[in-house]
Protein 1
Amino acid sequence: MYAIIKNGGKQYKVKEGDIICFDKMGLEPKTKVEFKEVLAINDGELKVGTPFVEGAKVEGEVINEGRGKKIIIFKKRRRKDSKLKRGFRRDFTRVKITKIA
């Protein structure tokens, strides 16, 4: 059984017991989270919502919040003496999916 949920403008395929990194939500660890924007759910047969499945929800528990690995963005235009170096670290909230209803 799996579900496709929408959170923060992105779509995630989740199953019970999965650990997913969402964009930062600003929640404390051990907090219960409910996702009501369920786009599709598969429990033997696929149910697709228009745009969301009626009465479906996904429950999870916050494990922790953190920051991802640094990504270096380096742009160079050859023969122009033009360089740009930037770094980026994604803030995330790690959630364990407990129930799909």
Protein 2
Amino acid sequence: MDIKGKVKEVLSNLLKVKLDELKDEVSLQDSIGVDSTEMVESVIALEKSFGVKLSPKEITKSSTISDIANNIQSKLAK
């Protein structure tokens, strides 16, 4: 599974959202209505899944699935 697919899987399980609702350009805050607590939980879940350190600011700033996956990819490449 690619990084984007894994991000979708983690967020789908955590946020109780169907995988097909998590399109690449979906905004977590605007389209799905993720609140600040869910954002923090998402950061923690993604950190555990990928073994990288993320800040809630990075996820808020990178609010689409594609942006989050790209952010994680860049951290894994270091």
Protein 3
Amino acid sequence: MSLMISRNGIIQEVTRKSLTKKVTPPDDNRVQFEDVLEKESGQQMPFNKEKGHPKKETLAESKGLKSYQKQSTQIHSKLVHARDICSRPIITAKPQDTIQMALEKMQKYKIHHLPLLDEAGTLVGIISDRDLLGKRTHERLDKVATKEVLVVKDSLEIKMVARLMLENHISALPLINEEEELTGMITKSNLLEYIMKSTPFDRHI
């Protein structure tokens, strides 16, 4: 299983929930650009002068699309794992730390989540800035933290990481290695930053 959960420092595998909303396969979600252009311009596509029929030139035949497909293949031919784009070093807190201490640490490092580690370095909880809203600043973190923490192996491919985040409605996942040691944190921001840097033709923006 890809997804695991840490309960009281003990990591166990969990059954991955099915998506409540099916994701449309890429092949069924293609945009017919000729139709879009025709609707926007209110004009029909150019006709073939010889036969009097619309040109049958498709996007697949255009040099621009072929170039894009070539770049996409080259960029995404290598699998990217969670450990390749995660946030490191990981910033953590202790269960006995106060909310005020957590807020100051989040502000200093510009982060939104803090894994909680006990004295032995075991993952025992996680806190987000949303969890701290409206709470008294002198309270201990272990009083308001989420004790059951979803985690994934740092060797997991990022496409699966993104899917797990969508399915479970979370924006961050702690990463562990084969020895179940905390090695990093992957967030939606990490995924978006990777997409931004790796997408071809990003210079036209």
Protein 4
Amino acid sequence: MMSKSISALYEIECYILKGINRHFERKALNAYFRSITHLGGAAFAILAALLMILLFKGSLRDVAIASALSLTISHIPVQICKKLYPRKRPYLMVHGTKYPINPLKDHSFPSGHTTAIFSIVIPFILYTPTLAFFLIPIALSVGTSRIYLGLHYPSDVLAGMCLGTLTGIVSYYQFIPLL
């Protein structure tokens, strides 16, 4: 049985989820969030990381390598957490949650898409801080898309942001000097 404080936090989380997910039927938002969410998907993230390594030269290529390493490393704790904390996705638990056809069936905590996008963009932001004005809104949009689509709770996304950011920072500062 959940304690009162955990239950209250869950209620707040469901309130935020419903507030974002309630716009699911809006065509423009649907098109935007259904598209941008793929930036955090495995296929796009891996392909983007590999293309950046192949196309960039010099120190920017080193940042791309750190970004790819961050993406790789970040998914170890994601998979461990999904096994240790088998949280069901919101569309299965929260009545009235709208979701796309053929939704993901694995566990929701933490958000792998959010982890991926933050793990990729953080090394580039550390290298060129002005990129934050462009990359942070994109990364936050990917995270928001996961809630909008009814696939993740806000805490799943927050955990993904933290994991991706942490691995991005560690990869940048630990691996760039080695390259």
